[in-house]
Amino acid sequence: MGHDHGHGSAATAHRWRLQIAFGLVAAFFTVELASGLLARSLALISDAGHMAADVVALGAALVATRIATRPDATGRRTYGSYRAEVFASGIAVLLMLGVSVYIVIEAIRRFGGAPEVASGTMMLVGTLGLLINVICIGLLRNGSEESLTLKGAYLEVVADTIGSVGVIAAGVLVRATGDRWWDTIVALAIAVFVALRAIWLGREVLAVLGQHAPKDVDPHEVAGALEDVADVSEVHDLHLWTLTSGMSVATAHLVTTPGPADAHRILTDAGALMRERFGIEHATIQVEPPDSSACSRTSW
Questions:
Q1: What's the pTM value of the predicted model, to 2 decimals?
Q2: How many CB atoms lie within 10 A of CB 108?
Q3: Residue 298 located in a structural domain
Q4: 30 with 134, same domain?
Q5: pLDDT of 58-95, one tens digit each?
């Protein structure tokens, strides 16, 4: 069994931010849903639906960060449970898309005649939602560039902020013009915005699950840098992927030049290169003599 490096993911360090944001969003969701139903406002109901997605997504992120740090008693999870955070981000994507589809369907149903809406309630609840979302943005922004989990939560809150602005605008327009269709139009605009944000985040989630190279690392550049290490003639079987946000992993085989070569020094230099230049702390490197046939016997 290999030893445990004791890594902690970026999301774990910012868990307290998720906890506060979860509490604020969960409390406001109840208020907004009740207000939307009473005011018969599709914009409020749609934004409440998005808030519900936030509650589930933030809750899933909290559970995922707890699972990610849980010790593995089976010995079979050799990479730990850090991928739970990525799955939580995937849940956020599905929820955002689901909310968007619901809003569109409900808007289509209202084409036969939009009901009367309480514009005053819309503006009041929208303003309260805007305040809650601004607080949550301040909480989650710092960790959003370090963690895909926090980025998913952050994007959800950003989308909610736009939704709150839309609700306020819809209330103002309904009151100023008397046209109830502004409520439906704003709801559709919120749906489109939420869907686009979900697709953007979903691409990042799929890139991690598909084990693509980290987005800020060029595999060709890594291979060239390793070939420049003294006494290395060739680099093959180079693999780069992201375990979870802030935790990139690499493996590589380095073939030495003919003649004597210090394998220990090559390992030290290559490891330092991966850490300092590419930010990859966990690199598994195999040094091979030029006449080695070990890799030629592999099937893939």
A1: 0.73
A2: 11
A3: no
A4: yes
A5: 787 787 777 767 777 787 887 777 787 788 778 878 88
